[in-house]
Fold:
Amino acid sequence: MVRTFARAAGIIYLLVGLLGFIPTFLSPYAGPDLAVDSMQGRLLGLFPVNLMHNLVHIAIGLWGLSAARSLGASVGFARGLAVLYTLLAIMGLIPGLKTMFGLAPLHGNDVWLHAATALVAAYFGWGATRDTAVTRT
Structure:
């Protein structure tokens, strides 16, 4: 189950990262100024992105796909994703950090999406792993 999560999250984040490079899927950016304004916009009109944000999504997608090859790596991916996305959700709420020092937008709809991702990843990283261990004994 954790391996399926890693694979699905990997595919989703890889596709989202790639979509961010297609101008058709971007609407004009509205938010704090960014130092990195390449590919800046709102993905699907909802989520603020830029070049750095897209590259991070692609990296996370590749990490998830790679991690899906083994149970241990999948658990590590889910736990790492839970911690990382919890931090990103919190950063998105703090005025001085919501653009990651001008590198990538973390504000607006990204906050709730990052928080939801963190919750789902935490379930698979800790809850589902515990369930798997119980069914094996």
Q: What stands out?
A: The radius of gyration is 16 Å.
